[in-house]
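From: lab user (bench 3)
To: helpdesk
Subject: output format question, protein + S-adenosyl-L-homocysteine

Hello, I'm new to running complex predictions and I'm not sure whether the block I got back is the full result or only part of it. Here's what I submitted:
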Amino acid sequence: MAPLQDDKGTEVTEVSIPKRPISTVVFIIAMQTEASPLVEKFQLAQESNSVFPNGVPWVRYSGKYKDLNINIVSPGKDVVLGVDSVGTVSASLITYASIQALQPDLVINAGTAGGFKAKGACIGDVYLASDVAFHDRRIPIPIGKLSTGDSLDMCPHDEKAIVANDATVKDMEGAAVAYVADLLKTPVIFLKAVTDIVDGDRPTPEEFLQNLAAVTAALDQAATRVVDYINGKNLSEL
Ligand code: SAH
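Helpdesk reply: Thanks, we reran it on our side. This is the complete output you should expect:
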């Protein structure tokens, strides 16, 4: 590939950040329950003219909020099982397809997560993750503060890797979204609201389902604050 050049023809090694306010934002949200309150908050409408391949269950809502073109993209319901298509495979695909089709200035992966009380996480806390990594790939490199794998539970092997590497929150999409956004050189923010305490006493599925609706409201408020904050700003100001 030819080296990048700036407008004076000088070679530059990094992709430059546009010096204009952020205009298009894509939220990647795994579950319908997580997405619905934000769709209403920003008064978005479901797009019937899909920019995605025919037949996929992926759903896009879009509209204008303040000065921003906001899109919320969800993987939709699994065509066979009828459940939300959570996890890394769908998250990667919709992130890739959305960046290709919509060319956003910024991607925001918003969702719920398990939190570690040993790191101070409580139900309903919302984290802006500073770092992300996969925990179920057995590659012994340090992992980040948001740890992603394709399971809701935590086997002892994963626990060792996650705890030893200092993670505060654990989800099923973040690192996949990070991987694709990085491939396509698109900035990304991770916003994760704690539905369950991973190192607590209660079974995760039970605690997750019990708190999902209330914690989604906290996620919704935090996402609105993030969007209000980025409105009118350049990426370099974030
Ligand atoms: N029962 C749901 C599946 C939920 S999977 C269904 O029918 O579709 C859990 C979702 O919440 C994932 O999107 C994941 O990112 C997030 N999550 C919440 N708590 C988690 C935890 N402790 N570990 C991993 N992911 C968690």
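A quick orientation on your result: Residues 204-230 form the longest helix (27 residues). Let us know if anything else is unclear.
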